[in-house]
Design a protein that fits this description.
- The protein starts with a helix and ends in a 13-residue tail after the last helix.
- Helices cover 83% and strands 0% of the residues.
- The chain is built from three helices and no strands.
- It is rod-shaped.
- The longest helix has 59 residues, at 39-97.
- By secondary structure, it is an all-alpha fold.
Length: 123
Amino acid sequence: MFKRAIWTGIGYGLGVGSSVYVQHKVKKTVEATVERYTPAHIRDEALARGKDAAQRLRDGASDAIAVARNGSDAVQRGADAAREADASAAVEDAVEHEPRMNLRHRLDLRDSKFVKSGPFRPR
């Protein structure tokens, strides 16, 4: 009989304790949820997210502009180098095939169609 009373008391104690614990956790969760969904909190969070998104958009746009500027500069430098290489090759070919050309004629080759041919086109 004594064992029964002890186990009954332990059961009641654990039941009351767990009920109090669960009640406390539920109350805490509800309070946090209610506070989280107040109009002021929602407004503040939306404002913060909007500012963050705008900043990320600005950063991405400035990065894209920088890449575009660097890319167009690189393309221009490459085209200039290709034109120079074509002109040099034309001058060298002309000098190789006609060794008796005078200096004035060689200089005229640099102003020829090889230099002003437009954008670089691979052969």
